User: Fold this.
Amino acid sequence: MLKVAITGNIGSGKSTVSKIFRALGIPVFIADIEARLLYYEDDVKEEIRQNFGENVFNIDGGIDSKALAGVIFNDPAALKKINGIIHPRTLKKYNDWLDQHIDKEYTLHESAILFENKLQHHFDKTINVSAPQDLRAKRVMDRDGLTHSEVFARIKNQLPDKEKNSLADFIINNDGKGFLIPQVIEIDKILKSIK
Amino acid sequence: MAKKQKYRNSIAPHKGKVKSNLSRSDNLIFVVCIIIALLFWALIKLSHDYPASYTFKLKYKNAPVEKRLTGLVDTTVNIKFSAVGYSIIKLALFEDMTELTIDLENFNLMKKESNEYFIYTDELKEEMASRVNLPATEIDFSRTTIGFILEDLHEKEVEVLSNIKLQFKEQFDLYEKEIITPTSVKVFGPKGVLDTIDHVYTQNITLRDVDSDRDIMIYIENPDSDLLHFDPDFVSLKIRVEKFTESSIDTPIDFSGIDENIKSFPAVAKVYFKVAQKDFNNIESGQFRVAPEIGGVSLHDVDKLHLTIEEKPDFIRNEWIVPADVEFLIIK
Assistant:
């Protein structure tokens, strides 16, 4: 079974592309969602409490994601620490998930920061969903109600599309002019033909 | 002798001047005599009778209440008479001898055929006689009758449409269609004209910087006040105005009307719309239904489906969908 990763910058439409793959019967592991779910697990909360204290917790005992983001935003050491807590667990979840889909020709792992975290070597093939920066910014502003500057603060933390395209095995162009489904079907055919 | 010489000396220098004065005085007397002679000649001439002829343009008033004047058979009438020069001069100076207004109330209207009526000019003689200060027997008309068209008035009830232009202040707009009271009026006029009328418009006025409700009285535009009249000739116009805001709502795309198992990308469309601020809190996602337009479309021949809003609340407006088209897969 091939392990394929799909990535794309914010607003590129990678979730839509993942949904098309899923509609074609391909299992999709969405790393960002799975990582977010980990914050509700007791052992993760305990480890975060030991490292970052009570200040990043709500009154009801849940993790205050805004407070945690404030702590790690300008502190690379804190970011490394949180990644050290979350990433191994996410990876374990992924591996458990892969075991459930061993019979499939390939599976898809969706992650926004695949190339930023240099995780591409864990996969057999990679796909980047690419779109012009202005279009991505507009999509995010419409979708999340963010301001122009808030969107660009997020965009600048990601690698440019050009660089991601050069690292990826497949590129899906989602500039809003062409069709997505034919591109997905073409990649699906190629991936299924790889033995 | 010396005295005589002195007199001669005093006269001598003025001799030529006296001659000249005498000549000028003679000329003046001559001119005055000529003028007096001409005056007497004119007075004698003006006391004689002369033939006179006038052509009057015809106008009419006071048509019978159940009828309306819709055309003229005769547009002018000529009269001839003899009168002393003084009278003719007086007419030329003090009377309008170009237009004759016929008050139809004062005449016996004779029917010729269909809608064509006439009056006898003999009935006009008395009026004309008093106008020119002559006995009626002295006046001759160029024709014995004057003809015109009188059509029976008909009645029709027609709808009143607003022709008002509203220019709103920013963010303000019409909350609902203008309410016109009454919604219809009676129109009176010739049948031929009424047959061409299905509705009437209010007067065309423009209200600027509108930011609140308005309640105005407005006249109905009469395209031909000679032919038509309205009852009532004005209506009340109620204009409800509200402040609007833009909003949007995510709505799942509904494929329930399609036999095939369809999956679209995206599966949810965003409906943008304008809504009055007072209705903003009444918006719910269940009030909207977005579905693809599939009339005449073969799903196997198209790459995208065009979306349309099938259901929406009545109080929203200017709505549009993003995306307008979606890609889709037919799931086997």
The interface with chain B takes residues 16, 19-20, 23-24, 142, 179-182 of chain A (CB under 8 Å). The beta strands of chain A are 2-8, 28-30, 106-110, 125-130, 170-173. The domain at 2-193 of chain A is CATH 3.40.50.300 (Rossmann fold).
